[in-house]
């Protein structure tokens, strides 16, 4: 407790004192890795009661698609239910690669509470709509959002919770992203110039072009779908049929392919008609000792997401990154289960 009360004073002193002084006052509760003191407060069970807003904490597994989903869902819970939701550092780090610091407003649990390790959360693995509708869950609880419990795989997968509550919830956070969140580094202007360039190359008026983003997800997801759902990878025919569908459905189509395995995409997607362009970002990956795939350079994934979501319609593959492309692009999307026209585009 004392340590944390001292923080504001120490922060002033530290600008002119040596690292030994920092080391003396910095410890794991009150300082970041760089030994910079930050402000946190202690969580106190004595003041948390049945009228306090529920505290919800969630951690996502995996790369950006999942981290972004976790972030936005926790964010929307806070907005919609008035609960206090928190993310972890990893989610914040991912978000900061895509969006400006001003846009990434969710607090990190262990940076908010110096003593976050004493907080006891109760797992919430029930139906999502019960969490939305259940007033008794919005006050006085400390909930862990779809954690893995006793080796039973957790995680919030929207497809397991289809309901009108969830749909309304999703529409709200997608609208928030589009209207309120700023992408970093002028990336939207960059991809818009690129899309114009494609039209120019084909000597088409940009205004008359319909852009179709094609997202190819392979790498780690192949193994995931096989082991969990016994599903075989989507093959070249899937993407080529999808492209053919959009060529027939719309005039002046231009296809923009983003892939986590570009050599595979170039080999299997038929670009002979001249209207298919491949993103130049060429993301590459490595596997950690735990067998987890990580991006060599996140910027490639950021660029591709911006490029694909600025297209008018989408061909998706699998996984949450693909889901984001479809949601943020907002147009019709082609899936292995058929094409989906979002409600706002239906007459
Ligand atoms: C919070 O937890 C993360 C691991 O999730 C760790 O890297 C970070 O240093 C922690 N921050 C603080 C202030 O304890
Ligand atoms: C299609 O996408 C382009 C590029 O983002 C955009 O300029 C244009 O307004 C979109 N067209 C429609 C009909 O939404």
- Report the structural category: alpha/beta
The number of helices is 13
**What is the radius of gyration computed over CA atoms, rounded to a whole number of angstroms?**
23 Å
The portion of residues forming beta strands comes to 5-15%
How far is the N terminus from the C terminus? Answer: 60 Å
Overall number of strands:
12
Low-confidence stretches: 1-29
Order of helices and strands: HHEHEHHEHEHHEHHEHEEEHEHEE
In helices, the fraction of residues equals: 40-55%
Give a list of the ligands.
2-acetamido-2-deoxy-beta-D-glucopyranose
Mean pLDDT: 86
Shape: elongated
Largest sheet, strands/sense/barrel: 6 strands, mixed
Q: Largest beta sheet: what is the strand line-up?
A: 7-6-5-10-11-12
Question: What would you note in describing this structure?
Answer:
The protein is α/β, with parallel strands linked by helices. Helix content is 41%, strand content 13%. It is built from 13 helices and twelve strands. A six-stranded mixed β-sheet has the order 7-6-5-10-11-12, sandwiched between helices. Strands 2-1-4-3 form a four-stranded parallel β-sheet, covered by helices on one side. A hairpin with a 5-residue loop joins strand 8 and strand 9. Helix 3 packs across helix 13. The radius of gyration is 23 Å and the shape is elongated. The N and C termini lie far apart (60 Å). Bound molecules: 2-acetamido-2-deoxy-beta-D-glucopyranose (2 copies). The site of one 2-acetamido-2-deoxy-beta-D-glucopyranose has 8 residues, from helix 4 and helix 5.
């Amino acid at each position: 407790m004392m340590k944390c009360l001292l923080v504001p004073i120490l922060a002033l002193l530290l600008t002119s004192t040596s690292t030994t002084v920092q080391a003396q006052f910095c410890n794991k509760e009150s300082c970041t890795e760089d030994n910079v003191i930050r402000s946190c407060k202690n969580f106190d069970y004595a003041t948390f009661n049945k009228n306090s807003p529920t505290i919800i904490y969630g951690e996502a597994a995996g790369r950006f698609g999942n981290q972004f989903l976790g972030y936005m869902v926790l964010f929307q819970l806070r907005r919609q239910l008035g609960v206090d939701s928190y993310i972890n550092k990893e989610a914040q780090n991912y978000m900061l690669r895509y969006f400006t610091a001003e846009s990434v407003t969710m607090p990190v649990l262990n940076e908010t509470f110096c003593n976050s390790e004493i907080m006891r959360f109760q797992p919430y693995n029930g139906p999502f709509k019960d969490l939305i509708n259940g007033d008794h869950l919005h006050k006085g609880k400390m909930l862990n959002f779809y954690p893995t419990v006793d080796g039973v795989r957790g995680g919030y997968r929207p497809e397991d919770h289809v309901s009108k509550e969830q749909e309304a919830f999703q529409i709200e956070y997608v609208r928030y992203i589009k209207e309120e969140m700023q992408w970093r580094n002028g990336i939207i202007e960059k991809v818009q110039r690129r899309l114009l360039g494609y039209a120019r190359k084909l000597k088409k008026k940009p205004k008359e072009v319909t852009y179709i983003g094609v997202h190819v997800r392979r790498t780690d997801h192949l193994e995931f779908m096989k082991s969990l759902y016994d599903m075989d990878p989507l093959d070249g025919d899937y993407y080529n049929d999808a492209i053919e569908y959009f060529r027939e459905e719309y005039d002046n189509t231009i296809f923009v392919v983003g892939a986590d395995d570009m050599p595979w995409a170039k080999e299997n997607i038929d670009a002979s008609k001249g209207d298919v362009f491949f993103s130049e970002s060429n993301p590459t990956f490595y596997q950690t000792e735990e067998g987890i795939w990580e991006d060599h350079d996140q910027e490639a994934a950021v660029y591709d997401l911006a490029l694909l979501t600025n297209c008018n319609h989408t061909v998706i593959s699998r996984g949450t990154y693909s889901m984001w492309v479809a949601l943020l692009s907002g147009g019709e999307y082609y899936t292995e289960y058929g094409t989906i026209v979002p409600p706002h585009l239906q007459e």
